[in-house]
Amino acid sequence: MTRAVAYRPLRAAVIAAALVITCIMTGSAAMMPSASAGAAHAVPAAAKRAAADDFTSFFATGYDGWQGSGWQACGPITWSVDASELTAAQAARETRRLAWAFQQWSSASGLAFAYAGQVPVAYQDAGYQMRPADGTPARPRHIYVAFRRQGESSLLAGRTFGLGWPTGVDGSQITGGAAIFRTELAADASRPRTAMSLYLHELGHVLGLGHAGTQANVMYPVVSDVTRLGPGDLAGIRAFTRPCPA
After folding, report:
1. Half-sphere exposure of 28 (CA within 13 A, CB side)
2. d(CA 37, CA 19)
3. How far apart are CA 124 and CA 39, in angstroms?
4. Are 58 and 164 in contact (CB under 8 A)?
5. Domain-wise residue ranges, the chain
6. 104 to each of 1, 2, 77, 135, 142, how far by Cα in Å?
7. Residues 203-221: pLDDT tens digits?
8. What is the model's pLDDT at position 47?
9. What pLDDT sits at residue 79?
10. Full DSSP string of the chain
């Protein structure tokens, strides 16, 4: 017997503790792209093996029975963007970057993602709920992405520029997700790698990954300008993705 979980207020203190450090940026100087950003470095074999084990479930603590939950690879998972607080040019650019991030996770997991267009959403800070602004029910197997100004979420403050989380679980299957990003990041065209790394990181949470412990992985809590999934990211998404039932 499965149980559907709508992620109601999700125990606000628990989700705040889990997410508040999710996308803290590095210092302003390190946020700027550089010629060496993303360059490959020689890594000892032992370190590579350790990094491959460096992943956790989003539900690692505080959610009995949900540990290791992930999306089923059954048809496409749709996603949409609410870019109403961005300019047209910013919206187009960030949607392309998000599509790129979804593709990286798709290549690693076998999950398929399909862009469903611009969908305005209503975000409720209490319980971190995101729903279509027109009042229609949330779509099944859908990920809502929105851009909001600093202060529109109690967690989007200081150096926290984004949040990502599953919005529903049925048994061990994640059935919905949401991510919210600060408009200030989208408006700053000088930090493309930082934005792309942040999108990878938060979508990793939406797909069921928790934080990694080493900087070799995108899921490391402090986001910098890494734009390649690390060995732990790859191992984690493969471990949590659920096969489609026959």
Report:
1. 2
2. 26
3. 39
4. no
5. 4-29+51-240
6. 33, 30, 14, 32, 18
7. 999 999 999 999 989 999 9
8. 53
9. 98
10. ---EE---S-THHHHHHHHTTTTEEPPHHHHS--TTTT------HHHHHHHHT---BTTSSS-TT-TT-B-B-SSEEEEEEE-TTS-HHHHHHHHHHHHHHHHHHHHHH--EEEEEEE--EEEETTTTEEEETTSPPPPTTEEEEEEE-TTSSTTS-TTB-EEEEEEEEETTEEEEEEEEEEHHHHH-TT-HHHHHHHHHHHHHHHTTB---SSTTSTTSSEE-S--S--HHHHHHHHHHPBPPP-
- Tokens encoding 246: 């026959």
| Greatest mean pLDDT range, 51-60, 87-96, 122-131 | 87-96
The answer to whether the CB of 208 falls within 8 A of the CB of 29 is no
Q: What is the pLDDT of residues 5-57, one digit of tens each?
A: 333 333 333 333 333 334 443 332 222 221 222 223 344 555 555 578 899 99
pLDDT per position as a tens digit, 146-172? 999 988 888 888 888 999 999 999 989
Give me the mean pLDDT over the 236-244 stretch: 96
CB 15 within 8 A of CB 154: no
d(CA 157, CA 129): 18
- Tokens standing for 82? 């609410």
pTM: 0.82
Q: Which class does domain 4-29+51-240 fall in?
A: alpha beta
